[in-house]
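task queued by scheduler; priority normal; single chain, no ligands, no partner chains; default sampling; output format set to structure tokens
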Amino acid sequence: MRPFRFLATIADNDGYSDLIPFARKAEAMGCAGFVIPDHLMGLAPLLPLAQVAAVTERLRVGTFVLNNSLRHPAVLAQELATLDRLSDGRLDIGIGAGWNKPEYDAIGIPFEPVGVRIKKLAEAITVIKGAFTEGPFSFAGEYYTITELDDIPTPVQQPHPPFFLGGGGKRFLTLAAREAHIIGLAPRILAGDVPRLDAPSITAAATEEKIGWIREAAGERFAEIELNTYPTGGPTVITSDPRAEAQRRADRIREKTGAELTVEEVLESPHTYIGSTKKLTAKFLELRERFGISSFLIDDLDALAPVVEALAGQ
């Protein structure tokens, strides 16, 4: 069993004013990493992560996750190598294919079919990894062309920092199984002008299917992959009556998506943190035992402090 690793994050832009004390608190509690999302409707992630690295000693820093469509991969490689150096080798590279269509519409970037976005991401990962190597690097792909690129800083972590890829579809998870060191088990997002959660994809049964895809695509390297999950569809709720809260969560999911989930499916989901701290401690142990999930993004540091303190590194 892999040891538990908990990732802290800021809840919203207001949290940036308290970024330094919050990061130090996360490290003191035993969190292994600090991650920041990447959306146009908010502050950019890499500069705040450099600040987090500067005020902590052990906390790894990462993105959860970069939208590949927003940056050229060679330029991104330069930024990431710089951050890995500034953090003395504590960077995890979280990157994805992009999913939030309104962001694309706002700046006039075509929101291409998911298959195209995944192909672009696959090429981008090749470019980033290649840019980290010593000597000139060239690449001729369908979407990116690199000619004798040289002198980009090399990261401290060799041959490159760990890659974190998160997604919920088979095509994406197949790519992640080949390229990533950490795989985030995300829900699927239904296409449309307004992105919508595919609610059944947060269930334990769907999680089992996703891990099966990863195992098949990864082959022998499956044992090297760390699996991550995070809360979706609602915040962490510490309560002595988890069934009542789970019913409210199921009702909200039905209202927003039309999908019917049972109370048991909500409580069993790797993407819901509902219950007492004792029950949630037991749930994380069960998720690791059943699925091999050992990395958890937590959305409420104070609420889950007893769980983190009990399990971190164990």
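post-processing summary
- Residues 114-131 form the longest helix (18 residues).
- The chain has a mean pLDDT of 94.
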